[in-house]
Amino acid sequence: MNAKALIIWLIVGAVAGWLAGMVVKGGGYGLIGNIIVGIVGGLIAGWLLPRIGVAIGGGVIGAIINAFIGAVILLVILRLIKL
Questions:
Q1: I want to staple 16 with a disulfide (CB 3.0 to 4.6 A). Which of 21, 29, 68, 70 is the partner?
Q2: Contact present, 20 and 72 (Cβ < 8 Å)
Q3: pLDDT more than 70, % of the chain
Q4: How far apart are CA 68 and CA 38, in angstroms?
Q5: Which residues lie closer than 8 Å to 38 by C-beta, 6 or more apart?
Q6: For helices 59-82 and 30-51, what crossing angle results, to 10°?
Q7: What is the model's pTM?
């Protein structure tokens, strides 16, 4: 992985994590936490969505949407575990 790809992953993760934090109330986990949630969410969505037959377009916008969906799923699971 080169530096450009790493920066794109971090930006996509930060945006997706921040958006997911806004949707799933609770304020998120700060910048680093949101990046981690967004990246893990992207991995979750990359694994889960094709298995249920959902295909979202490519590019940066598609990556943000995928990571956002995965991050929302992750945050909901984390909220349920906190209860």
A1: 68
A2: yes
A3: 94
A4: 7
A5: 12, 13, 14, 15, 16, 17, 18, 20, 67, 68, 71
A6: 100
A7: 0.81
HEC string of the chain equals: CCHHHHHHHHHHHHHHHHHHHHHCCCCCCHHHHHHHHHHHHHHHHHHHHHHCCCCCCCHHHHHHHHHHHHHHHHHHHHHHHHC
Q: What is the pLDDT of residue 34?
A: 78
Report the Cα 72 to chain-centroid distance in Å: 7
Residue with tokens 């799923």: 73
Q: What pLDDT sits at residue 26? A: 64
